[in-house]
Amino acid sequence: EVQSNLTLLENTYIKDDFTNVTDKIISHVGKNIHIKENHPLSHVRQRIVNYFYKCFVNSRGNPVFSVYETLPPTVTVDQNFDSLLTPKDHPSRSKSDCYYLNRDYLLRAHMTAHQSELMKSGLNNFLMTGDVYRRDEIDRTHYPVFHQLDAVRLKTKNELFHKDPTLEIFEVGNNTQSTGTQQKQACHTLEAVKLMEHELKTTLAGLAQELFGEKIEYRWIDTYFPFTQPSWELEVFHENNWLELLGCGIMRQPILTNSGVVDRIGWAFGIGLERVAMCLYKIPDIRLFWSNDTGFLNQFKVNCNENVTYKAVSQYPQCINDLSFWLPIDKEFSSNDFYDLARNIGGDTIEQIVLIRERARLGCLYAIIDFLGSNNVKYSPKQKDLKMPAPAPVAENGAPRTELQELQ
Ligand code: PHE
After folding, report:
1. Tens digits of per-residue pLDDT, 130-166?
2. How much is the ipTM here?
3. How far does residue 2's CA lie from ligand 1's centre (Å)?
4. By alpha-carbon position, which residue is closest to atom 10 of ligand 1?
5. Which of 115, 211, 300, 363 is the most buried (most CB within 10 A)?
């Protein structure tokens, strides 16, 4: 049965010959894992945001960048391409590369899609972060949904040249028709472009150091984007490979003029969050970011600046068992005694043991997680069960259970 309507985030789209978004892709829309507490992507996002808050402050010490993290991923062809001067025949527009809702709407292929609307709203310094969608190969480093953080910084002549007010941003005649050279757009003065390039490159090299450490080796590669000129990629040397970290450049001036900005020059960049998180935390497979396995997620229950090295969790479905017992009053007991006992009997099939509660040394409740040897006794304690007072664990004959009975 062919359905002619598609409803997504409370909007209805009329399907046409461009519609190619699948149910599987739609199921990712709105998950917002980039702002999920203690998610590795959220940690990377927060570290980048904090870096910008620290680097750019006004005279009163307040951050100048505003941050947008929940802009809806459904955008128009105009937002994603036209407003960014992407040529009509550019391959990035093709149905084989994007997820179209119909001819006019698609799931954004980059966060840059929101540049124009935020400039129109009057912002001069802003960060935008969220989920982006691209049809691509399938391997451990590619997934059709991933996350980006984009930035825009616009500067007036006075902000740029406060040391020498005789300098100008724009060439006389302000020729926006001619496209210029790889070095600069025709409308910009060389002084303006060089100062902007310097600020952009110092900021981004500093970001690479913030993320990967002071000693990180990096290099700049000349490249092309429809929306910046000149354009560069920043690569970092990580584990014997040059890794493409981000794309950036001096914003093409017509994008600013079309958004009502006539007296400023801007720089912009976009960085993918997954690749950074995979390197920082040694996460081997991009699909793990979508995991709900607490064996994965709990490893990131840390401050975003903490160094975490991901330790592989079982690829089998998680199995949670809980266990409670009385403690003898006349004997010493430490949690480690129980961990040793469990390890001794359960061996390496036990992934983690969490102490839920210990009440006045009377009883406690442990949850043994991913005890693969006992896949047939799945029992996941519900949150309300865990909040109840510890039940006295008593065997059928009325006697408190022994340790071994509990583990069997
Ligand atoms: N949008 C580009 C990408 O997805 C990155 C970029 C953003 C490049 C802003 C330049 C300026 O690769």
Report:
1. 999 999 877 888 899 999 999 999 999 999 999 898 9
2. 0.98
3. 36
4. 248
5. 115
